[in-house]
Amino acid sequence: MTKSILLAEDDKFLRRAAETKLKQAGFDVRVAVDGDEALAQAREQPPDLMLLDLLMPKRDGLSVLKALKADAATAAIRIVIISNSSKDLEMQNASDLGAVDYWIKSNLSLQELCDRVQRLLGEAS
Amino acid sequence: MREQHAADIAATVREHDVHLGGLIQVNPLAVVVIDAHDLVQMCNPAFERMFGYREADIIGQPIDPLIVPAENRHEAEALSRLGFAGQTADSVTRRRRKDGSIIDVELTVVPLSHEGTSIGAYGIFRDLTEQKHAERHLRAQYAVVEALAHSATIEEAAPWVLRAVAESVDWQLGAMWIVDRTADKLRCLDLWCAADVSAAQFEQETRNGRFARGVGPGRTWDTEKPAWIVDVTKEGRFSRREAAAAAGLHSAFSFPMILSGDVIGVVEFFTSAVLEPDDSILRMFAALGRQLGAFVGRSRTQEQVEGFFTMSQDLLCVAGFDGYFKRVNGSWTRVLGYTPEELLAEPHVNLVHLEDREATIAQLASLRAGGLMNSFENRYRCKDGSYKWLLWTAIAKPDEEIIYAVARDNTDRKLIEQQTQDTLRMRNDFVSFVTHQLRTPLSGIKWMLELAAEGTDPDEKTSYIQDAHESADRLIGLVNDLLDASRLESGKLRVVLEAVNLRTLTGDVLDDVTTLVREKGHTVTVDSATDLPDVTSDPQLLRQVVMNLLSNAIKYTPPGGRIAIRMGLDGRNLRWSIHDSGIGIPKASAARLFEKFFRADNVHTVDTEGTGLGLYLVRLIVERFGGTVTCESEEGRGTTFAFTLPRAGAPT
Asked: pTM of the entire structure?
């Protein structure tokens, strides 16, 4: 069964690159360009995995994370933070709020990103 | 007949005396024999010594006019009558010597009878001078101690001391002089005068007098010893003698006030009598002078301590173990704004910031247990509701249940510490934000190149490489903006000042963005006078300002919007504005638009498509050339950004 991924990323280049790569790997990928959209899509159709950027317009990633974890209907969604910020405080907050992991985009190749997603979703199935 | 009678009495008495072994003649008590008419019949050598009369001079004279002061006349007559009536009588009273001076005596009257008939009386006098002196001495001492105990300063004590001493020796006027070190003169501190003496002129001369060492009371200052003048009205060197004569003052004595071997003042007394030097008085007052000197020394020490207490810029206080201030100095009012009464009225811990209260109470407890409070800091609430940081040093005296404490207003230093911390935090925020902003286009380049490398479709590959290219441009733009901002902030950016025509410059920028404008379907209008004066600026930087504002307007205005640029004179400035019909900016954000992007509270609102530095740079550049930049916006109605710059040639 095809696993679904919700990719919330405001930078159009990163969004395009990650979406392309994950689709090539056979995932069902939906995208959101800001925080509000990310929240709406996750509620409308909870994905198997959510890749959530932190610094986004309208609503930041931590606030999306918090809202999803607070709602029983979406609390089970596995969420990985993908950010280029490496502030200790943000990492800690993300972990406290229930994020599965915290990845720094610039430190990953697309292939590594894809492999990690596969590992995570493989474990889950 | 009368003489015969007198001779009989004298003979009888002498006869008795012989029988008694010369008891009368050699007696140390003064003895006088009078007849029933109060006439002197005989006196002994002790009487001659005590009163200054020789027996031969007074035989047959009435006794009372000789030795009884007017005010004792009745009492003397009553005593005689008792004696003549055959009774022994005793009295402590006063008599007068030949020289007019008064002597305190104990007088015993013993009847003198001959063959059962009263023929006269013995008067036996005991000299009470020494005893009276001792009593006066004690009285004066007591009065002086009393006066000093109730006074804080010698100025306060002076009138009481002068009065106590003068009254105890029955003198009419006293004055206290203090050494004025600066002027090197004696200055009158105070003067006391008995009510029944009119000495207005003398008082005026004394109070206004300034005496150098060796002159007037300055002689006592010079000799450092008590001095006695029998009659100042006859003393050529006494400058106030005419005023003294007018006031009826004659004898004077003075003594120095001595502190640690130095004369610090002089006290002088005057009497209406003419008196020979009295050693006992001089001795007594030498001791008093040392006592007064010591008092001045103590009160000066006290004054110095008071001076420190009053003048200190630090907050000094004395507090009780009961939790209340007992005393605070003026700095408390200066720093916190409360009156001393307000500070003393409630437990001092009530004024401590809630967050610091627990630590303060713990500090006070260890202080009461005999500890020392050092470098403890807490916040005190001011009367206006603000808080001040106080840095404490304190020590307790458990025996007296008293705490002595000094607090320093440390608010300014705390503020600097706080600012330093803020600066550090801001720098960290800046670094992490810049890191993020750099990583994003870098990731874009990296991922796009990765896709391009793996891709097989040539068109797709080209598209990935274009995106990588665009990301790289964004990265370069960001790095350049950062560098410009940093140089502008530190004032190190090299600027080329030229006369710039804003109208021409705006036209050039518009040419560059024609494609963008067309893509979004905007209409751009420019409204400017043709003869717009130049501004003095760096053309490249000014171009950046116009470009940033214009591209913002294009970017944030929904497709098909209207953008209006206006240029005109505003006083001696040029005003350039750009109005768009976009969505507008919320008021709260508008105020912060020109701040640097890394402000923590607006990070998530930063436009992540841009660098976050555009408007900040606009502000830096405009301000660099002496202008200001503003933003007026109404949500849903559009936004106007405007900047002003001084016209070329206008004084800046």
From this structure: 0.49
Predicted complex ipTM: 0.93
Residues of B in contact with A110 (CB under 8 A): 447, 450-451
Low-confidence ranges of chain B (pLDDT < 70): 1-7, 588-592, 595-612, 649-652
The answer for B 265-294 residues in CB contact with A (under 8 A) is: none
Predicted confidence at residue B595, as pLDDT, reads 66
Q: In this predicted structure, what is the pLDDT of residue B602?
A: 36
Q: By the 8 A CB rule, do B563 and B579 touch?
A: yes
Q: What is the β-pairing status of strands B387-397 and B402-409?
A: antiparallel
Dist. CA B95–CA B621, nearest whole Å: 109
Our CA dihedral for B280, B285, B287, B289, rounded to 10 degrees, sits at -170
B470 near A CB under 8 A: yes
Q: What is the pLDDT of residue B2?
A: 45
- Please state the three-class secondary structure of B489-518 as a single string: HHCCCCCCCEEECHHHHHHHHHHHCHHHHH
Measured over the CA atoms of residue B18, residue B22, residue B23 and residue B25, the dihedral's sign is positive
Phi, psi of B28 (to 5 degrees): -70, -20
Stretch 53-112 of chain A: residues touching chain B, C-beta under 8 Å: 55-57, 59-60, 83-87, 104-106, 109-111
d(CA B12, CA B21): 14
pLDDT of residue B426: 79
Per-residue model confidence (pLDDT) at position B380: 95
pLDDT at position B592 is: 66
Contact B590, B631 (CB under 8 A): yes
Q: Do A110 and B450 touch (CB under 8 A)?
A: yes
Among partner residues A10, A11, A87, which is closest to B444 by beta-carbon distance?
A: A11
Partner-chain residue, chosen from B442, B444, B608, that has the shortest CB–CB distance to A10: B608
